[in-house]
Each structure stands twice: as C-alpha cells, then as structure tokens.
Automatic annotation (TrEMBL):
Keywords attached to this entry: Membrane, Transmembrane, Transmembrane helix
Organism listed in the record: Paracoccus limosus
Keyword Transmembrane annotated: yes
Protein name listed in UniProt: Short-chain dehydrogenase
Residues annotated as transmembrane: 17-38, 50-71, 149-171, 244-264, 270-293, 305-324, 336-356
Any single Pfam family the record assigns to this protein: NnrS
Length: 375
C-alpha cells in the first residue's frame, strides 16, 4: 500500500470530496471581495460553483461513503475515489476556462453521470431497489449542467435531497442519541408527513414554470410539513447533545427557505426570490452540509461525538452569514452587506477546514458519520 502524507486521504471518498467541498465553500465567495472587473463574472461564478462545485463534492462524498452501508458491499476503492476527484476537478477547470457549451457543460456533467453510474451499479448488484432513486439522483445536476438549466430548479432539487437524505439521517441520529435515556419520548418520522412534504415540493417544482401561483402554496405547504417533522423528532431534546443540535438547527433553514420561496411567488408578500433562494442555499444547503460533513472530523467519546469550540463557532458563523444576505432582500443590493455575508461565511468554513484536518489521516471509523464506531 502506498505510504506518504496523502496516503490516508484516499481511504474513503468522503475525505477528499468533503475537503474539496469545504475548500470551494471558502474560496468561491472571494469573487465578491475583488475589485469590479477583476476575476470571473461574480453572479454566474458564485451560483454555478456553489451549486455544482461545493454541492457536487458534498453530494458525492456522502453518497459514495454511504453506498457500502446500503448494499452491505465493499467500500469504494481508492482508485475509484481518485477518478471521481479528477472528474470533479475537470469540471471546475472547464467552467473556469469558459469552455463553450455543450462541451463545457458536458465536461462538468461527467462527474455526476459517473457518480450515478457507480451508485446504481452497486445498488442493482445488491438488489436494494429502494435505494435506486437516490443512486440516480446525481443525474439531475448532470442534466442541468449539460443543458445550462436555470439555477432555481437545481436549488429546489438540493432542497429535495436535504428533505430525503437529511431528514432520514436526523431522525436516525436522534433516535440513537435518545435511546439511552429511559424516559425519553419516542422519536418518530411519520411517512405521511415526510412523504407529503416531498410530494408537495415535487409538485411545486413541476408547476413553477407553467403555474407559479400554484407553486407558491405548494412550497409553503412543503415547508410547514418539514417543520412539523421536528415535532415528531423531539428536536428540543437535542439541546443536550451539540453534535445532534447542529443538525436540527441546520434543518430549520429548510422550512424557512421553502416558505419564503413560496411567499416570493405570491403577489403582495414583498419577499424577493433571491432572498428565498439564499435561505435555501446559504441556510439549508450550507449549514446542513457543514453539520453532516463535520461529523466525520469530530472526536469520539464512547457513543458521543464531541463538538469543539472552533467547530461550534464555525457553524454559528455560517448561520449568521445568511442574515446579511437576507437583509439585502429588503434593503437592496448593498455591497457592504454582500461583503459582510461573504466574510462571515468564509470564516465559518475556514474553521470547519481546520477541524476537518483530523479526519484526513489514520484509520477510517465505521460508520463514518456516526459515533457507533466499529473497526
């Protein structure tokens, strides 16, 4: 086996891909701090690279690390991980160089197509058909890159993934964390509630082009049902377990973002579409990705994951960074608020990267994102 300072990096897909997601979250907003005319076109770069770059790396790292648990199969080989990292980097280079569509979009889409191919092959081989929709989910951002689809649809798609993946994870982690408490209430995740929220969001995504006024109430309904899931999860009991609390706090941005997105489609609400989108991207996507990825770098103490002061501050800063950006929806395009949001966000992700360095070397704990470690 190869030795060296980077040998441990390739032992699990989450290590390089979560690292790249964190680095991209830190680097991409610097475009707002540059003098006008210097660097790439800010809005296009910011939107594309945070969705497909940061979001794509985080999605790949999570799914490739989770698939062996779905299938009871072998872990993803280091060589496969290296190929996926190379494809992700190729997409970044193609976009930075301004490769003309469809070539640029195709290069960026290959990463997502390969990710869906690897996942679906393992799922089909193991016969776990219920996991096939998640295995094929990367085809959606891949298709969006190939056809240069509007960013709003991809934002809602990531909201859908947060509801499906994040919701299941939070319910499972909460159930496990509270299981040791004899008097703890039962943690539930009613299928009708989770399914209803998902259905309403899917219908809203389908209706947004032809019937935006119908999409608005559907998004609000989805957001309210996602909020109601927190009651079934007994979210208030997470206060005593910081690693779990980070997930529940991140989840709050999902219903907030969906309700704002719905309100933005209704007349007379005064909610700007950009405000709603940033509640989902910076709020729900940013904080949920951070809360989940950070678990891989947390110190384990028995059956608990410990949140360091640096990580707690980093998560708090990512949450705080959303507020100046939301204020811009009511105060106008204030460059001071924009730069403030970027600086606070970047500081939060820098602290994550400092914490995550401990997860890049040594044996990989199994399962990666849970405190129930086993060799």
């Amino acid at each position: 086996m190869a030795r060296g300072p980077l040998a441990g990096l390739w032992l699990a897909p989450h290590r390089p891909l979560f690292l790249l997601a964190g680095l991209w979250a830190l680097l991409v907003p610097t475009v707002w701090l540059l003098p006008p005319g210097l660097g790439p076109e800010p809005l296009l770069w910011h939107r594309h690279e945070l969705l497909f770059g940061m979001g794509g790396a985080a999605l790949g790292g999570y799914l490739l690390t989770a698939v062996p648990a779905w299938t009871a199969g072998p872990r993803i080989a280091p060589a496969t991980t290296k190929v996926m990292v190379a494809l992700w980097l190729a997409g970044r280079v193609a976009f930075a160089c301004g490769a003309a569509l469809p070539l640029g979009g195709l290069i960026g889409a290959v990463y997502f197509l390969a990710l869906a191919g690897i996942l679906s092959a393992q799922v089909l081989r193991a016969g776990v058909w219920q996991r096939l929709p998640l295995a094929l989910a990367p085809l959606v951002p891949g298709w969006a890159q190939m056809h240069d689809l509007p960013g709003e649809g991809i934002v809602l798609f990531f909201a859908l993934l947060i509801g499906l993946i994040g919701g299941r994870a939070i319910a499972a982690f909460t159930r496990h964390a509270l299981a040791s408490h004899a008097k703890a209430p039962e943690v539930a995740d009613p299928p009708w509630l989770a399914g209803g929220a998902t259905l309403a969001l899917v219908l809203a995504m389908a209706a947004q082009a032809e019937a935006p006024r119908l999409a608005g109430p559907l998004l609000i309904a989805s957001g309210l049902m996602q909020l109601a899931r927190m009651v079934a999860w007994r979210s208030w009991r997470a206060v005593g377990y910081p690693a779990l609390l980070l997930l529940h706090l991140a989840w709050l941005w999902l219903p907030v973002g969906l309700v704002l997105a719905g309100a933005a489609r209704l007349p007379g609400t005064g909610v700007a579409p950009a405000t709603a989108l940033h509640a989902i991207t910076m709020g729900a996507m940013g904080s949920m990705m951070l809360a989940i990825m950070a678990r891989a770098g947390m110190v384990r103490q028995g059956t608990r994951l410990l949140v360091s002061p640096a990580l707690a501050l980093g998560c708090g800063l990512v949450h705080l960074s959303v507020l100046p950006r939301l204020l811009m929806g009511w105060s106008g395009a204030d460059p001071v608020l924009l730069r403030l949001a970027a600086l606070i966000w970047m500081a939060g992700w820098a602290l994550f990267l400092w914490q995550f360095r401990r997860a890049l070397q040594g044996p990989v704990p199994r399962p990666v994102l849970s405190a129930r470690s086993r060799a």
